[in-house]
Amino acid sequence: EAGVVQSPRYKIIEKKQPVAFWCNPISGHNTLYWYRQNLGQGPELLIRYENEEAVDDSQLPKDRFSAERLKGVDSTLKIQPAELGDSAVYLCASSSTGANTGELFFGEGSRLTVL
Amino acid sequence: GENVEQHPSTLSVQEGDSAVIKCTYSDSASNYFPWYKQELGKGPQLIIDIRSNVGEKKDQRIAVTLNKTAKHFSLHITETQPEDSAVYFCAASKTGFQKLVFGTGTRLLVSP
Question: Cys-Cys crosslink for A93: which of A27, A33, B19, B85, Cβ 3.0 to 4.6 Å?
């Protein structure tokens, strides 16, 4: 079974440029998460989707960040314009609401460097 | 909101020794406490979890203990192996697993 797939793995951009990250969750997982992981820190939740509905976006900086999950499968996280402080690893995770465990399955992440 | 503190930030042990990582949480309503292992260039992976109605859980060489009164929980790894070298994160949630608050991580290095 394929895991959570993210792309690109690495992205280097100049500040004020836009950037987008893509995530394909594990097949059948209806819950999708975007986390941001700063260097030397734990992941911090940005947004959580249940199917195509964003049920928790309280920590998403809405002035420059946006996300969508069309058709309740793949998701895209966009930053426009990027700032120096946005340099981090953006992790996508998925889980199955119907599962009896609390396991989140993470992708390998997209590392963003803003110059 | 919930705040999770994790110690130590780095831990070096010899192969075969035991390793203990400790976390404290602030919200007494938290009821789910997972531990994730993150290898270099990879996403975190769940290794063990515990719910607030259980005081201890063990899975082969790893175990987790929970003290609800003191609001702290610990990860114990026995007979450490070089492949245990990674960054370990504790986390806490009061809404099941849907809104995890992670600690800052512990870099474990197991030397042969």
Answer: A33
